[in-house]
Amino acid sequence: IMLVGDVITPKQALSGFSNEQLVIIVLLLILGSVFKRLSRMEGLFGAMIGSGQQLSPFKWKTYGSIGVFSAFLNNTPLVAFYLPYVLSWTRKSGISASKVLIPLSYMSILGGCVTLIGTSTNLIVNGLAIEYGQPSLEIFDFAPVGIVMFILGFIYLFTVGDRLLPNREAPSKQMEDARQYFIETNVDAGSRLAGRSVTEAGLRNLKGLFLVEVIREGKSIRPVSPGEILQEEDRLIFAGDPESINDITRPGLGLSLPKACDLPDSSSGDIVEVVVGHNARIVGMQVKESDFRGRYNGAILAIHRNGERLTGKIGQHVLQAGDVLLVLTGDDFDIRMRNNPGFYILSTVKESEETSLVKTYLFIAGFLAAIGLTFAGVSLMVSLSALLLLCIVTELISPNEIRNSIDFNLILIIAMGLALGKGMIMSGAAERIADSLKYLPETFGVLSLLPGIFLITNLLASIITSKAAVAVTLPVALSLAAANQVPSESLVLAVALVVRLTS
């Protein structure tokens, strides 16, 4: 609309795509995906958290480490990296995951507030400020405020926050029952189970699974009595947890998964749990229309949604963000999913590809060097580009994996947000809004600008995307700073931190 209305020129509308801060965001996303797939980091992290069952030491280690990492890497792949380990530890320790998961997410957000590159929001604010003629922020300009926020948040989550989060009775059992599925199997022709009763076949006392229904010649037998005689071509419906499914499909037992679960080019058939993210392509599609098998070489066996096990034909269900899918995987499922921001793997049977210790240390040293070179005057974009080139040369990431790790929706939103900010300036809207707030310093003093900007930014970030909120608020903040002879850096930092915490 602003382009058609001649508020901004085509060049101004598209200039955001060439913004250096946007390029840095893309580079950090790619490097974050490299970090996530370093198998040696998984071993180091596993050794760090240890095998103890005390909650406090575990929280100290996980909260502190994710806070440090998120100061330099995008928090989304970091949380995805931590998730399987945290869930596994809570299951083994008999502690409710609700005591850990929400604080883990919050600490990653607070850690991102410590540096310029800790979050894309900080980089967007810096990019906008540069566009408006302000000096670029340094990488640790956020640290004086960000470190204090991080420490206070850390203390709060250990004390008050820990008391507010639920600790359900029998947490280990709840974790075990949290995601159960209905699984269909077939009694194969010639199976040794045919002609035997359910008890004789050993299907009454399966660990983690319960036989709930037998479908024979289109008729349902439910409940299933212990003496029910199984026949060839019977369809058996089990309810249970995913870790036990391999027990009933092992070779020689005589049960198999339905033909609909056959995978092209598949030889292994590991079973994993996958969470559907809000930005996954398949959200809003029926399973049969999503081409899940063709895209990812995995067959959806069951779906768990909002505490319920979905029944009926899998292909008819419309997939939603937050669904937990039980997936039978093909050989390259892990590779196809590795850098996909739309999915999060909760558990996996297949071990990840081993990364050499030399390459792991080389990546860590290269990343630290890239940050250190900024103090010598080297552009962060240049140093991160050199690190990415090193990752390609050492085969830590391939060009195809680079493409898969880029969130093109995020790039479009950021570039258009930068154009929106230009429109706020060119149209005079920012100056008009600033004029309407000029009574604040006149009545309450210059310091009142900070809570004023805080409230405006907080409100906008609560109802629109954080990127759009930054584009709207920052021009207003800069106009207020210029009109009241206030250092612009203070209001720029205020906008960035408020948007980060609100979103």
> What kind of assembly state do the chains in view correspond to?
single chain
Average of pLDDT: 77
Proportion of strand residues: 5-15%
Strand-pairing-aware structural class: alpha+beta
| Largest sheet properties | 5 strands, antiparallel
Low-confidence stretches: 169-179, 262-268, 348-352
Q: How far do the termini sit from each other?
A: 26 Å
The level of helicity is 40-55%
Shape: elongated
Rounded to an integer in angstroms, the radius of gyration calculated over CA atoms is 27 Å
Describe this structure as you would to a colleague:
The chain is α+β, with helices and mostly antiparallel strands and 503 residues long. Helices cover 50% and strands 11% of the residues. It contains 22 helices and ten strands. The strands form two sheets. A five-stranded antiparallel β-sheet has the order 3-2-4-1-5, with no helix packed on it. Helix 5 runs antiparallel to helix 6 and helix 5 crosses helix 10. The chain is elongated.
How would you describe this structure in keywords?
single chain, elongated, 503 residues, alpha+beta, 22 helices
Q: What is the compact description of this entry?
A:
The chain has helices at 10-14, 20-36, 39-49, 55-70, 75-93, 101-112, 120-131, 143-158, 160-164, 171-177, 245-248, 292-296, 333-338, 357-373, 380-393, 399-405, 408-426, 429-436, 439-444, 449-463, 466-483, 488-502, and strands spanning 181-187, 209-216, 219-221, 235-240, 255-256, 271-276, 298-305, 308-309, 324-329, 343-347.
